[in-house]
Amino acid sequence: MTDATTCTKCPTGASTCTSATTATACSDGYYTSLPSCVVCKTGVATCTSTADLTCSAGYTLVSAACIMCPANAATCSSTSVALTCNDNYTILSGSCVVCLVGTKLCNAP
Fold first, then answer.
1. What is the three-class DSSP state of 4?
2. Where are the domains of the chain?
3. Which residue from 63, 25, 61, 29 is spatially nearest to 46, judged by alpha carbons?
4. Are 46 and 66 in contact (CB under 8 A)?
5. Which of 6, 38, 78, 96 is the least crowded, having the fewest Cβ atoms under 10 Å away?
6. How far apart are CA 82 and CA 106, in angstroms?
């Protein structure tokens, strides 16, 4: 918060505020619960008090809730089906497996 003479730190998670204890808008990863900001659940990038809106990498949105993707998946369509994999992994039948250079499983040269 800024006025003509002083600057005050906003509450944790607030992007704007009217005082050190009153948020008027929250940053990504938080939702507004006036007068403060509440952190979203693990794996959630943006949320409201009742629903997840967008998910962090490694999670996918299903019925307004972020669920964890399978191991080593960057994106997925469910808890058991990977769509893309983290670096050094490739998809094999919906799962992410180690990508070995020079094998048919690896797309890299």
1. coil
2. 58-109
3. 29
4. no
5. 6
6. 16
Bridge partner list, 2: 7
Contact 67, 79 (CB under 8 A): yes
As a residue count, the chain comes to 109
As a whole number of Å, the CA-based R_g of the chain is: 20
What the block records as the tokens of 6 is 């002083």
- Inter-CA distances, 37 with 43, 47, 50, 69, Å: 17, 11, 14, 27
> Each residue's pLDDT tens digit in the chain (109 positions)?
445 567 889 999 999 999 999 999 999 999 999 899 999 999 999 999 999 999 998 999 999 999 999 999 989 999 999 999 988 898 889 999 998 766 665 654 4
Contact 72, 65 (CB under 8 A): no
Residue with tokens 């999670």: 59
Q: Which residue has the tokens 């960057």?
A: 74
